[in-house]
Amino acid sequence: MRTATIDVNGLGRLIDALADDGYRVIGPTVRDGAIVLAELDSVDQLPSGWGVEVAPAEYRLRKRADTAMFAHSAGPQSWKQFLHPARRKLWSTDAEGNGFVPAADEVPKYAFLGVRGCDLAAIGVLGGVLAGGEHPDGSFLRRRPLFVVGVNCTEPGGVCFCASMGTGPAVGPGYDLVLTELVDDDGHRFVVDVGSAQGRRILDRIPARPTAADEAELAQGKVTAAADRMGREMPATDLAEVMRESRESPLWDDIATRCLNCANCTLVCPTCFCTTTEDVTDLTGEHAERWQRWSSCFELDFSYLHGGEVRSSGASRYRQWLSHKLGTWHEQFGGSGCVGCGRCIAWCPVGIDLTAEAARLSGAAKERLDVDG
């Protein structure tokens, strides 16, 4: 049975089955006025009946008229925090002469529930950065064996643009199970597609029934329709070329008049990966530790080199971020660093919209080519 249908009770049994297999189940829940990612013990912790209203510099919960659990767009957190922690100890040492002691890195066995297409693509992008190459990140590799329960998006938010990035609203490869939620006169249920042998093994342990043909068609139709209701759209052009042609564009200075260089966009981005290290000691000076933490190209000292900062202006730092995300990421890692989740738009305090800025840069680049041509 590759496709099946489960009800809310079946979803609860799915959570129980994963927990019984030793997984720490992470999924969406309501906390602090937002839908956040946290450990789940029960289906009752999912955000049943809650949606969100999201726009540039705006995010708020709204009560829905139904009991849908996954009818909301991306919140302030991404799955990156579990795979690439914001802060972790690397080693410690003390005056007793025990040398440098590596920090214990006990990694839970994770099951992610409710992963959207954009975020599953982001996990793949992050994996290409941290797990690829000659020197993969051991911490990331230890966290990477996952059980992924994806969710096909049926209600994109006002800042979503995954359809134009090719990452959604349907969940792409890499899931074990994927759900499409249906709430109507026929009840609250989830059409489940199996993506792996591991997913089939779990599904066989929970109450399910074969999916009716009209039910499968209804589920597919809702996902297809979601692609036409995106709140944003990335311009359909060669963005890497646009970034190369826009290096000296005066638009960077215009953006800098609004940008606060607060680094919110990089902190909420599911693919930004930069880190720095900090050494700390206790008051006696007899114990020291080295910690790794997230860093950002918006920090003034991020480009510190030989006594000064390479990118001292706000315009140069924003250009670095957008040019890397949409441009040179292709050269480094073989694809875009943006998955269209829209978090950077929603959580920018001044509402800077990278899709709008990319469109402006694209238009200006085209005008210059037309003049030069």
Please describe what this structure looks like.
An 8-stranded mixed β-sheet has the order 3-2-8-9-10-11-1-12, with helices on both faces. Helix 8 crosses helix 11 (314-333) and helix 8 crosses helix 13. Helix 5 links the parallel strand 9 (147-151) and strand 10. The protein has helices spanning 8-20, 80-83, 117-130, 138-143, 162-165, 197-203, 213-226, 239-245, 251-256, 264-268, 314-333, 343-346, 354-372, and strands spanning 3-7, 24-31, 34-39, 50-55, 58-63, 87-94, 101-102, 110-115, 147-151, 177-184, 187-194, 209-210, 275-281, 287-294, 304-305, 308-309. It is α+β, with helices and mostly antiparallel strands and 373 residues long.
Architecture blueprint of SSEs:
Layout: E1 3-7, H1 8-20, E2 24-31, E3 34-39, E4 50-55, E5 58-63, H2 80-83, E6 87-94, E7 101-102, E8 110-115, H3 117-130, H4 138-143, E9 147-151, H5 162-165, E10 177-184, E11 187-194, H6 197-203, E12 209-210, H7 213-226, H8 239-245, H9 251-256, H10 264-268, E13 275-281, E14 287-294, E15 304-305, E16 308-309, H11 314-333, H12 343-346, H13 354-372
Parallel strand pairs: 2-8, 8-9, 9-10
Antiparallel strand pairs: 1-11, 1-12, 2-3, 4-5, 6-7, 6-14, 10-11, 13-14, 15-16
Helix pairs in contact: 8-11, 8-13
The oligomerization state is single chain
Number of strands: 16
Q: What's the number of helices? A: 13
* Rg calc: 22 Å
The percent of residues in helical segments reads 25-40%
Q: Outline the low-pLDDT stretches.
A: none
Nearest-integer average pLDDT: 94
Our measurement of the CA-to-CA distance between the termini, rounded to an integer number of angstroms, reads 59 Å
From the helix content, strand content and strand pairing, which structural class follows?
A: alpha+beta
Strand line-up in the sheet with most strands: 3-2-8-9-10-11-1-12
Main sheet: strands, sense, barrel: 8 strands, mixed
* Morphology: globular
- How are helices and strands ordered from N to C? EHEEEEHEEEHHEHEEHEHHHHEEEEHHH
Strand proportion: 15-25%
